[in-house]
């Protein structure tokens, strides 16, 4: 996930090595994570790709198969890992993650607490944000889920930045030894109000908490609990609208500022009667429009800052 040189500096400039994890990019909606093994091959609709041909090449390389087809070998960044990881639970996606990182004020060297771990989508981004000197302590009450997450962090090279614990934070709270040390806390729990008092004890003065909840009733109850020890309470719902961009045809006779695409038939006929043959020509033009499938509500993000005692 985060290739590290001997000086503990993050870098994607080094070459791909045997045993590395890479993201195989076939097209924007078809990617997969693979471990490089010099004796293995990848077979898909584009042909056969030998892993041995990948070793020594930099991340981002375009490699060809025996049939002339190609794929890209990409570095497993948190953004790409979020798109290819195994879903053990519902995950957070890039739009929500980016807001969480920003409003939790996470920078290199921070100590961050997370509950629950789930599939580890957010955890990978938290780890990159606090690297190379910070640390993420993440907890999940489900032992097998925590073990799977721990294996994923080993694969992606995050094990030195992330500690996975098995603990029911709603019932037991965060470990006492972390009290007063956390810069930020993230909660993804069905009853976050049960964990908020413990989260307040672990936070440094002026530390920030975020709670992710899919239902507004959960948000309301969490806010009731937050008001006793927290201030600056804010709630967000991130609705992402993506666009697709493609090349289309536009008539030369169409006025500037009109819609992209060909003129209606009657307008084309009238245009051809009064103009030269050149006006009937069309030329490529870039067309942009909202994607037909828009992602709606994922959840509410509630942020609050721990009050400083005077």
UniProtKB/TrEMBL annotation:
Superkingdom of this protein's organism: Eukaryota
UniProt keyword Cell wall biogenesis/degradation present: no
Keywords: Methyltransferase, Nucleus, S-adenosyl-L-methionine, Transferase, tRNA processing
Comp. bias intervals (Polar residues): 272-281
Catalytic reaction(s) noted: adenosine(58) in tRNA + S-adenosyl-L-methionine = N(1)-methyladenosine(58) in tRNA + S-adenosyl-L-homocysteine + H(+)
Region Disordered: start-end pairs: 254-281
One BP annotation, GO: tRNA methylation
Binding residues annotated for S-adenosyl-L-methionine, in chain numbering: 119-122, 140, 168, 188
The keyword Transmembrane helix appears for this protein: no
Chief place where the protein resides: nucleus
InterPro entries for this protein: SAM-dependent_MTases_sf, TRM61_C, tRNA_MeTrfase_Gcd14
A Gene Ontology cellular-component term: tRNA (m1A) methyltransferase complex
Subcellular location: Nucleus
Enzyme Commission code(s) on record: 2.1.1.220
Enzyme class of the recorded protein, top EC level: transferase
Pfam families in the cross-refs: GCD14 (PF08704)
Family per similarity comment: Belongs to the class I-like SAM-binding methyltransferase superfamily. TRM61 family.
The protein's name in its UniProt record: tRNA (adenine(58)-N(1))-methyltransferase
């Amino acid at each position: 996930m985060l290739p590290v040189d001997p000086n503990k500096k993050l870098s994607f400039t080094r070459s791909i090595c045997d045993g590395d994890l890479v993201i195989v990019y076939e097209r924007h909606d078809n990617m997969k994570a693979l471990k490089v093994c010099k004796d293995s091959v990848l077979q898909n609709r584009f042909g056969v790709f030998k892993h041995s041909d990948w070793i020594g090449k930099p991340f981002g390389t375009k490699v060809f198969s025996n049939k002339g087809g190609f794929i890209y070998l990409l570095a497993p960044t948190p953004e790409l890992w979020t798109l290819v990881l195994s879903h053990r639970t519902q995950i957070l996606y890039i739009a929500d993650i980016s807001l969480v990182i920003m409003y939790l004020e996470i920078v290199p060297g921070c100590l961050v607490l997370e509950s629950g771990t789930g599939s580890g989508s957010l955890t990978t981004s938290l780890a990159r944000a606090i690297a190379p000197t910070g640390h993420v302590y993440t907890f999940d009450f489900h032992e097998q889920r925590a073990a799977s997450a721990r294996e994923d962090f080993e694969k992606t090279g995050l094990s030195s930045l992330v500690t996975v614990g098995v603990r029911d934070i709603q019932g037991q709270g965060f470990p006492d030894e972390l009290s007063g040390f956390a810069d930020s806390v993230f909660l993804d729990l069905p009853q976050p109000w049960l964990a908020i008092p413990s989260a307040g004890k672990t936070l440094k003065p002026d530390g920030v908490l975020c709670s992710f909840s899919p239902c507004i009733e959960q948000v309301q109850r969490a806010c009731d609990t937050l008001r006793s020890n927290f201030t600056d309470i804010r709630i967000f719902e991130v609705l992402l609208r993506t666009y697709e961009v493609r090349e289309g045809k536009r008539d030369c006779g169409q006025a500037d500022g009109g819609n992209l695409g060909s003129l209606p038939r009657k307008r084309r006929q009238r245009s051809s009667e009064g103009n030269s043959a050149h006006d009937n020509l069309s030329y490529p033009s870039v067309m942009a429009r909202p994607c037909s499938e828009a992602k709606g509500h994922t959840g509410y993000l509630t942020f609050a800052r721990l009050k400083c005692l005077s």
